[in-house]
Amino acid sequence: MKVTALSGGVGGARLLRGLAGLDEVELSAVVNVGDDDIIYGLNVSPDIDTVIYTLAEREGSQGWGLADDTDEVMEALEKFPLDTWFRIGDVDLATNLFRTARLRSGWTLSQVTTAQAAVFGVQTSVLPASDDPIRTEVHLPDEGWLSFQTYFVDRMHQTPIDDVRFSGGWAASPAPGVIEAIRGADMVVIGPSNPPLSIWPILSIDGIADALGGAKRVVGVSPLFGGRPLKGPADQVLKGLGLPDGTAGILAAYDGLLDELVVDTADMADLAADATTDVELRALPTRISEPEAAVALAAQLVAL
Amino acid sequence: MKVTALSGGVGGARLLRGLAGLDEVELSAVVNVGDDDIIYGLNVSPDIDTVIYTLAEREGSQGWGLADDTDEVMEALEKFPLDTWFRIGDVDLATNLFRTARLRSGWTLSQVTTAQAAVFGVQTSVLPASDDPIRTEVHLPDEGWLSFQTYFVDRMHQTPIDDVRFSGGWAASPAPGVIEAIRGADMVVIGPSNPPLSIWPILSIDGIADALGGAKRVVGVSPLFGGRPLKGPADQVLKGLGLPDGTAGILAAYDGLLDELVVDTADMADLAADATTDVELRALPTRISEPEAAVALAAQLVAL
Question: Which residue of B has its CA nearest to A74?
Fold first, then answer.
C-alpha cells in the first residue's frame, strides 16, 4: 500500500515513524521547506532534519537536532559577538555543512536529502516539497513581517501573529517525485503538524493542492489534543489568523482538501459540533511521542 | 617603536609572536588574504586565523587550526558523500561560523578580524591586507589553474607549478589602516612567508607596493634555511616561476622593495654570492618555532 504523508517537524515526523514501522506500507514523505533559512551562512532545513533524525530514531528530545549530540562548536561560538539563539549541535552541524557544501556545488535539495537519508540509514523516500527556496514569514501586529526562525526560535513563538505568507512560493515548483507521490498514493496523510505554518507552505507550491484534489484519499490528522497542541503555537496561530478554535479550525485550515480528519479521542466532543462538514471525522488516540503509539495510530489509519 | 609586518601563515605568524613579545614595539600585522576561500559554504581566512591563534599561543602544531581542538563535526561530516580534505576542528569552526555570519550581515573582514582578535585576547593590530576578495591561484603545467586551497591542502603542494595569479587583486583596495600602518612604521618587516604565494598577493593590492616604496625601512626575512623552507613549497615555487635558487630567489621575488634582507646563519655563504645587490644582507638565527627564539630574532631585527 502506497502512503504519502505531508509533514512539518516533530508531530509529522512521529507519524512518519509510525507509518515506516508498517511492513505493508511503501512510504513517501513530502516535507515542509518553509522553515529553511540561512543561519551562520549555512543552509538549514529544520523539518527535513527532524524527519530524517526521527525516522533514524536519533531525534533530539528538545524538538530539533540529534539526541546525545555534543556542543563544542556552539560553546566556542558563544564567546564571539554574535547572537547564537539558533543552536546546532556538532553532529547536526555536519549535516548542515554537507547540505550547504552540496547546494553550493550545484546539487538540488532533493539530491542532498536523498544522500542525507542514506547516511542515516533511512529507507523512507524523503522528498523536500520543493527544491526552490520558499520562506515562511509571519506578521506581528506591531512589528511587521518576521522570518519563521526569528519568530519560532528567537521569540520562542510567544508573540501573537495576525498573518502568514510564503515568500517565493509562487515561483516554486514541486520537487521531482512530489506530484507523482501524491497522485500515485493509495492514501495521502496530512500529518499532525501546524496547518498554517507547516502544511500551508507545502500547499502554496504550484500544483500540490491540485494534486491533492486528484488524490485517491486524503486523511488529515489534527495536531490538537483538547483544542491545544502538545507543543508549538498551532492554536494561537489559528486564532490569530481568524480561524475557529479546535477541530473546526483544523477543518477550516484544510477547507476543500480532506476526505477524512482524525482527531484525538480527547476531542471526540468536537465531532458532533462539526457535523455540518463533508469531511468524515474520526477519533483515535493520536498521542504518538512513543514509537509504539505512532505505529498503532499508523496501523489504524491504514486500516480505515 | 612602530613595526608593521607583512605576513602569511606559519612563518610570518611566528615572527609576529616574537615582535609582539617586545615591550618597546607597537605592532601591526598586515595579513595575506589570498588563501581565503569558501569551504563548505564558510568563509575561511587561514592566514588570519593562524596569525591570531599564534599570537594567542593557541596555534595547532600541524600548521593550521587550534591546539587541542576537538573533531566532532569533521568526524560526522566524513560519513557524508563529500570530500573532506579541508579539516576544521570544532573550536576553529566557531571562528569560521562567526566570520561567515558577520560577513553576511554586512561586516567587513577587518571588523570581523578585530572582533576575532579581541575574543582571543590578542593586543596586536591584525589587519587583513584587503577587505575585498582576492584569490591566489596557481597554474599547473598539465591541469591549468587551481585554487590555492586545492593546490595547498588537497594536493599537499606536491605538484610543481609554473605560474601564479591573484584573482580580483586588481580590483581590491587595501583594508582601512593598512597604508597608514606601512607609511607610519619605523620599520616594515616582510615575514618569513612564501614570497610568491603569501606576500605577492598582499603586494598585488593597489597602493601597497607604492606604500612600501615610501616606507622608512623595509626588512625582509628569508623563509629559507640552507636554501629550503622548514615546511611548505617556497623553494619549489620560486624554481617553478623561473626565479633563482636560495637567497638570490628571495631577492628576486622582492626586487626593488627591500632595504635589508635577513637570512638564516645556514645561508651565510649566500651573502658573498649575492654581493651584487643593493640590499643589505645579514645573517641571523631565523629558526623561530620556539617563542623564545622568535623574541630573540625580533629583538635583533629591532636593534638593526
Answer: B94
